[in-house]
## 1
Amino acid sequence: MSLDPIKLRQDFPILSEKIYGKPLVYFDNAATTQTPTQVTDVMVEYYNKYNSNIHRGVHYLSNKSTEGAENARIKVQKFINAAHSHEVIFTAGTTESVNLVANSFGECYISEGDEVIVSEMEHHSNIVPWQMLCQRKKASLKVLPFNDNGELMIEKLDELITDRTKILAVNHISNSLGTINPIKEIIDFAHSKNVPVLIDAAQSIQHKKIDVQALDADFLAFSGHKLYGPTGVGVLYGKEKFLNEMPPWQGGGEMIQEVTFEKTTYNELPFKFEAGTPNYIDIIGLGAAIDYVEAIGLDAIDAYEQELLAYATEKFNAIPNLKIYGTAKNKTSVISFLVEGIHFYDMGMLLDQMGIAVRTGTHCTEPVMQHFGIEGTVRASFAFYNTKEEIDALLAGIEKVCKMFGVKHA
Ligand code: PMP
């Protein structure tokens, strides 16, 4: 299976933009992926022809929008192979999905003296909601460390998990290191100790085929904007047995069955967790993004991105004063690096002047930076529409910056 990046690039008008008169090289895909016209066209069509609030109407437009949004739910269900479509909750993104679980699962199952485990390589959005919960409940937050290659030390799980451990929250792929974590192994081990697991799939949903039933994941969170879809929409998958027991997180319209001033009863799944007007046009856009990605094929995407990663890693390793952070055996197409003597902001800003978009800083993973004793990195992250020629442009850009700073380059 292979793909044609040059042909696929035509679906993304932004990739033909010029930045300061230079062709855009977009290497910030781990922050957000670009959106093809196949997705934006569907959204514009809904705004122009069918826009109406969903679920409550009896009229044509409302039915049409409702159908679009509920079809998107089924697309997500099939995409991650959930057993039921009502196990798919639409949220604003990964962050909101994790907050939902931390609040609602936390309310239901966590009390004083209990423990929550996260890993040292989590995005802040899979740390802070748990920390807030632990503070509220007088529970404790424990941390699964990683080694200097950026690989989780999963052998430590045995000593970390106790009979007070109520949940383990871990990412599938690290956004700042690119490490692909052995989540099946982690889930199996946690389950052998009766600990449910939340998987942050923000960085994996766009690279790897995910099957929540095969993984036996209890919760899984991701964002639409990292899957070539719109911003402001995401998914929380949860096993029915947990979602049924968990209380609603936010109150409002749609999540209720009956309201009186004395008592409110709640709607069934998934609506119990979707208070207020859903972000239905973006939800429909997310469905279109799933269609788009499936038409290319995640296996083809993954294979091509691995090719880009191998190409870039070899070239980066040949630069004498450059260090890559995140050298796990199993990695996705992310290269986090620093050049000795050049601040990451300087590198990022000078590359920007050449039309090359990379991310600089902590990437919302301050504990990862603390592990390495650094303040940040430059991160180049590749998607299927990137090319080896663009990687060459980045390498030439780095060489130029090295020369400006008088840093030996080759
Ligand atoms: N987890 C990981 C691993 C991420 O990379 C991100 C986004 N950078 C998030 C969570 C948060 O996603 P969002 O901002 O879309 O809610």
Note: The chain has a mean pLDDT of 97.
## 2
Amino acid sequence: MTPHSPLSPHSMPWEDRPTGCNTPLWRFSRNPIIDRYHIPSSNSIFNSAVVPFDGGFAGVFRCDNKAVQMNIFAGFSKDGINWDINHEPIVFKPGNTDMIDSDYKYDPRVTWIEDRYWITWCNGYNGPTIGIGYTFDFKEFFQCENAFLPFNRNGVLFPQKFDGKFAMLSRPSDNGHTPFGDIFISFSPDMKFWGEHRCVMKVTPFEESAWQCLKIGAGSVPFLTDDGWLMFYHGVIRTCNGYRYSLGAAILDKDNPAKVLYRSRDYLLAPAAPYELVGDVPNVGFPCAALTDGERVAIYYGAADTTVCMAFGYVNEIINFVKENSYTE
Ligand code: BMA
């Protein structure tokens, strides 16, 4: 098995749908799986990414410390649920550049492409932009050139190349708590120079689908299904009480990932559980990773900018739900 093959059914972290539940996703009964004080230095651990690794799982975790400095930490798990997270943040060596400045790192994603694990994150370099790094073993890490100029967030790599080029989704933004944002795709021959930027998905009109009318951002690494790339994303509405982040799903064309085939008009999961409603930033569900065995999916999402949680679903039910509740421009 290569690390990017679907997981074998017995190694998927999973919990069956609870009786009486009829939504396409359901929350893990043991949420949150990672508490805010999981390592000694942490104020909060959330918006983190997980991949199959070495017969189990590895992850890159956003841990804000008690000075609320944002950084990313490696972690390991046998079952994808119980995690050992390193107490020290990831230290990067120069990768394809010596310029590896970083004022802060947050919201990592991890993607296996060809021969290594690529990590993208929001990197502080004169404001937020997309940092890129890689590792072979989750012990030694290498940092590459930032993908874009500031300001940008939510960089998510596809797990394969298209016409010989790497592909990344991202969300151009501003220097603060951006009140706008659409998802773009960019391509690179070498993980250093990025171009051919195209708009993939825009926010929706308020009256059509208000939960995603202010800004949207790519979430989990897309995975291939018979219908195309399935990706979970976040959508944001501005309420009288601040931003509210919900989970949606999009299906992108297999050969042309800039083309959206279907996209959820209804959210798949919106803040409703106590751990999503109460925390450092209330009303946030923020997906950063999804594991699949081809039939089932386990989503990792940050809850209220405080903890890491999981939700489960069946791929065919999610696909059908998105097709039947699709927003079309
Ligand atoms: C975004 C990022 C995320 C965070 C979200 C909600 O701008 O900072 O890390 O989860 O806001 O606070």
Note: The first helix runs from residue 274 to 277.
